[in-house]
Specification:
- The complex is a heterodimer of chains A (474) and B (386).
- Chain A has 2 domains: 280 residues, no CATH class; 173 residues, Rossmann fold (3-Layer(aba) Sandwich).
- In chain A, the strands form 3 sheets. A 6-stranded mixed beta sheet of chain A has the order 11-10-9-12-13-14. A 4-stranded antiparallel beta sheet of chain A has the order 1-3-5-4.
- In chain A, 41% of the residues lie in helices and 15% in strands.
- Chain A is rod-shaped and about 115 Å long.
- In chain A, helix 3 crosses helix 10, helix 9 packs antiparallel against helix 10 and helix 17 packs parallel to helix 19.
- Chain A starts with a helix and ends in a 9-residue tail after the last strand.
- Chain B folds into 2 domains: 197 residues, Alpha-Beta Barrel (TIM Barrel), CATH 3.20.20.70; 102 residues, no CATH class.
- A 9-stranded mixed beta sheet of chain B has the order 7-6-5-4-3-2-1-8-9.
- In chain B, strand 6, helix 8 and strand 7 form a beta-alpha-beta unit.
- Chain B starts with a strand and ends in a 6-residue tail after the last helix.
- Classes of the chains: A alpha/beta (474), B alpha/beta (386).
- Chains A and B meet through helix 2, strand 2, strand 8, helix 11 and helix 13 of A and helix 5, helix 7 and helix 10 of B.
- The structure holds iron/sulfur cluster (2 copies) and zinc ion.
- Chain A: InterPro entries: SAM-dependent_MTases_sf.
- Chain B: This is Radical SAM protein.
- Chain B: One of its GO terms (molecular function) is oxidoreductase activity.
Chain lengths: 474, 386
Amino acid sequence: MKSAWLTCWLAWPRPPLAAAPREPVVAKAATQRISFSGPQARALWQPRLERLGEAALAIELEMVRRKHIAATVLWTGYDGIEALTERVRAIGLEARPIKASLGYAADWSQDASIDEPKRLLDYAFLIGAAPLDAAMADPAAEDMAETAIRFGYPACCAESWANHLRRGGSDPLARVLAREDKTAVPAHTALAVLGLGPVRHAPCSTDCSATRDRSRPFLDLGRELGFVEEMSWLEEIAGWTVGASLVNGVAEITTAAFRCTWLSDEGPSQPRLAAPARRPEKRKAAAIELVDSAHVLAELGTGFESAGFASPFAMRSRFSAVVWEQTAALRRATTAVHIGCGDGLLLELIAQTKPKLRLYGTEEDTAAAEAARQRLGASFPVLGGTSTDVFAVLSRLAPEGIDLAFVDPEQLGDRDALAAISAIARSIIVIGTDRSLRRFRDIDNLAATMGLALLPGRAARVSATLSPAMDRLH
Amino acid sequence: MTVEVRPLGDKCNIKCRYCYQEGIRTAGNVPTRYDLDAIIATLDRLGEPFSLFGGEIMMTRRSDLERLMQLGFDRHGGVGMQTNGTLIEERDIELFRKYRVRIGISIDGSGPLNDARWAGSLAATRRATARIEAAIETLCREGMPPNVIVTLNRMNAAPGRLDVLCDWIGFLGSLGVRKLRLHLLEQDETEGGEGLALTAQENLVALRRLRRLEQELPSVEFDIFTEMAAMLGGDDARTSCVFHACDPYATRAVVGVESDGRLGNCGRTNKDGVTHLRASREAFERQLSLYRTPQADGGCQGCRFFLACKGNCPGTAIGGDWRMRSIDCPVWFGLFEDIETELLASGEIAISRSELRPDLEAKMIAAWSIGDNPTLHSLLQPADST
Ligand code: SF4
Ligand code: SF4
Ligand SMILES: [Zn+2]
């Protein structure tokens, strides 16, 4: 952002100035800390804010020239001093340095160094008709209200600002923002720190009518100087609803177009000003019911040792990987069986992936078969008994045959069983368990050792389809 | 600085009950289109390594995703990717290998332990969890173990379930997972999330248990403990954003590259559904205020761990107001205390107990006041070497 606004900016508020060195950090930082609510808001308002800043500066100088106010204070960096003095001189006014303050590290040019500290400072200039008394911006305590009036404060605001300064305050908006009652802060007041114009003094309250009355002449003068569009934007802004708060000495103003923030010097030494902004109480969701860890373990999967796994986690993870690898095959299938289904975990995972699949399980161990029935519910038959009986029942239940049969060949033991399965299943999927993969390193090796041929795939896969060329099993 | 590329913004295929982005999605602020050229132009300008991020990054069209991966690989030798893992498919594995994608997967536990990452129904949730577990195991078997991000919540880390969580982490270690990142659940984020958060005390108990676990499992490392120890040692060059005086107006530690290529902030401080653009200047009002605000008022005044912790992530601030310290303060404080004790016992320095602390704090405050944010490491160097 390059503009006159940023090489030279209005002090906020007008003098008398606070004793604390809050300027120029606050006005400059607040300006540079504008955070727009979106790209459209930025496209529209960033250039407008810059032009409003320039208009405010021109109007302020004109007010001094016309002697509406005694003087004003402008800030600039070291490199802006010359331009500022020239600009002021051109309209017959004088500029006098009254204060300097360490600027922002990010603004320091590459070549500026601590050997040349003057280039690291920002400078405040009093601007007025000659001869200028530099002390007028920082008057003695007894003159403060009077000085404020000469700088354009309404009497009510002059009095309250003087009192605030005497008590050691420094932020003109601290009291306004920290109010407990949430009457909306007028937008021009809340945004005054950005140097947009109409409110240039510290207002005594959010509803000070004298402060409101001061905007009219400002807008009129602006239009007279040719800032017609700018003044209409200001009128638009006046209608904005703003959120304004001060929490632990950090102020934040939020509008629909942007938000900005600044560190108020009014921090811990002050009495606690505001309760932190809390979000509205939400309806509490029903408390989560938690079963104990024994139930969790059961739900994770039981019988992992006999199924050939090192832990319930390993079994669940592996079966999940099998389902994941067989996504395409499962998508095409309408029926599937898990031979030796244990507690039914693989079938459950398959059902979660493809609920319409007709699923069967077989399990010789009666306790495990019972666990499987528990897990799967009544809609999936889990067949007990020895393998030969089971296959007979299975072919009766699914006379049209079964699309996919998942098997752990190691557990199946002999090739006769495999042949029996291939008689009823169109496709056999071999699963690697911890036990078998530890023994045979990978699934291809496992199959080769058992004299089985697999369809090709990733070497690291944990399941594979038996080659249909295994007709010789019959 | 971490650069997070977010072509689809906060768009996600599952809706974790506690996700910090839920508010944004509820507000309807999710981009429907993205401009890949603009994104790439921004990445070129930044010239920094980046991570693919979301929402859920894997919802991006594969060919576009591949272009981004390739860009990361060509420029920086690889690219990070944070995903919920549910959309990874077998064909993606070669993509990950080819472009050296460093994958981070979020999951809170096996099967039912991950139920807080809700996907609409119980069956859909369990299906999503199974896909995540499959992706982790597969990536490990393929020699590309992912980092795993675990959010502690009532489902996986309630007192009665901690042992199960630890056993599961042991299992991940046996698969080959080396790094885990632990997140604390934001305590009052989404409506559904409210029953899920652990109390500060429970969080502390869980984290202490996990720290012991880390010592029992030499192959597994939890970033958070390592980083906290590094911070206390004044070695903050590589620790994560939460320890680096994050400014919610311009989250320097995390920069988002959004769907139209513009720069965004880290979304964790976004509480009202408005994704504000970055301010042109980073500043440290929050830390300056916390340093001088009494703890009773939501500040950190007098805390000996302030240099290391700095009030922590503003996205976790008390009451959702970024100006307050982290609601997880008791957890941070307790862990810092543990780690401090151990550092001192082994004869190492802890800046919290160092006589240099007042001086370091003064230097840090002075630097923040003028908008500067030096590392502790640089402040600890002897003056003549800088
Ligand atoms: S808001 Fe929190 S998570 Fe985001 S960058 Fe800041 S510290 Fe990191
Ligand atoms: S431990 Fe708590 S008090 Fe201390 S710095 Fe962190 S948040 Fe602040
Ligand atoms: Zn008044």
